[in-house]
Amino acid sequence: MSFEQSLPKSLSPSRLADFKACPRRYQHASIERISQPATYATAKGRFAHYIFEHLFLLPNEERTAQKARELVDPAIEAILTDSVRNEIAMDLAMLDRMVDETRDIITKYFEMEDPREVNAEGVELRLGVNVDDTPLFGILDRLDRDQEGNLIIVDYKTGGMPNRNYDAQTFANTELYAALCREKLGETPTKIRLLYVAHGESIERNVTDVVVKARASNAVDAWQRIKRYYEEGDFPATPSTNTCRFCAYKDLCRANGVPVPSG
Ligand code: SF4
After folding, report:
1. Is position 90 within any domain?
2. Which helix (H) or strand (E) holds 64?
3. In this structure, are 154 and 103 located in the same domain?
4. pLDDT of 166
5. What is the pLDDT, as a whole number, of residue 1?
6. Domain count, the chain
7. Last residue of a domain, one of 68, 99, 116
8. Which of 148, 198, 236, 253 has its CA 20 to 30 A from that of 227?
9. Residues 192 and 155 grouped into a single domain
10. Which parts of the chain register pLDDT below 50?
11. What distance in angstroms lies between residue 80's CA and the mean position of ligand 1's atoms?
């Protein structure tokens, strides 16, 4: 079999995560471009990200909790489009729930940091680079400059906290962003901060050259495999309870004879 669709022009950290979880998922999402319907969680994530993005586009002194709350209505307009509402079967009760949870996120966020004091050098920063013939592209939530002059990658998380023994996977995407910064900006961030805004907690990790190089090299290897599978016309499915549980392609895989675990 060969694909009618062209190979994507670049590889992003989230698509790399798809590929590593299950190459067939990457095939459906990135080669065949079969859309993944929104869920309540993804819609809420985009909703909150819209508010933080637009809050940080304001001058420092205007980044108040009141301003953040005033961004809720524009976020409803911009993010909760008719197609999104249809996909998640949103009724008034669900809309109220999302707005209430977002207001709670805003309150918890302002207990974590004062955005008026944050020196954000980049907001929704788009970075594209070529590393060893691998086109990498990513959009950073925020890139801060701290008081010591270091760059800090900040990523908002609207889902649950990882468990206490969170592993390297928790930082995998953002460490690849650090590689993008190194290549594009000529400066490697020294730290990554993941802001779990629904919980008012953050976790941090220092960035080391060894890890940044390893993430870049891992992405280069994955891109080689993606090109090979693309030429062969088939990306292998690697079903498991964990990888399939929240995958949008369960029905498609089952129809194609993939033994997707139930649940
Ligand atoms: S349902 Fe499972 S096997 Fe199929 S694409 Fe998703 S993760 Fe892969």
Report:
1. yes
2. none
3. no
4. 64
5. 75
6. 2
7. 116
8. 253
9. yes
10. none
11. 27
What's residue 128's pLDDT? 96
Q: Which of 65, 84, 116 is the last residue of a domain?
A: 116
Residues 19, 223: Cα–Cα separation, whole Å: 10
173 lines ligand 1 (CB under 6 A): no
Q: Which domain holds residue 167?
A: 119-217
User: pLDDT tens, 107-119?
Assistant: 999 999 999 999 9
- Ligand 1 pocket check for 24: Cβ under 6 Å: yes
Task: Assess whether the C-beta atom of 30 lies below 6 angstroms from ligand 1.
Answer: no
Question: What is the structure's pLDDT at 168?
Answer: 66
Chain segment 158-209, per-residue pLDDT in tens: 988 887 666 667 888 899 999 999 999 999 999 999 999 999 999 999 999 9
For residues 137 and 32, what is the distance between their CA atoms, to the nearest angstrom?
19
150 and 62 in a single domain? The answer is: no
35 in any annotated domain: no
Residue showing tokens 């800090």: 152
Are 44 and 132 members of one domain? no
| 253 in contact with ligand 1, CB cutoff 6 A | yes
Can you give the pTM of this predicted structure?
A: 0.90
Query: What is the identity of the amino acid at 75?
Result: A
Task: For the beta carbon of residue 132, count every other beta carbon within 10 angstroms.
Answer: 11
Q: Which residue has a Cα nearest atom 3 of ligand 1?
A: 239
Nearest Cα residue to atom 7 of ligand 1:
244
**29 C-beta closer than 6 A to ligand 1:** no
User: What residues have CB less than 8 Å from 160, skipping those under 6 apart?
Assistant: 196, 198, 199
Q: Please work out whether the CB of residue 243 comes within 6 Å of at least one atom of ligand 1.
A: yes
| 95/80 same-domain check | yes
Residue 262: the pLDDT is 85
Q: How far is CA 249 from CA 22, 58, 93, 176, in A?
A: 11, 39, 28, 26
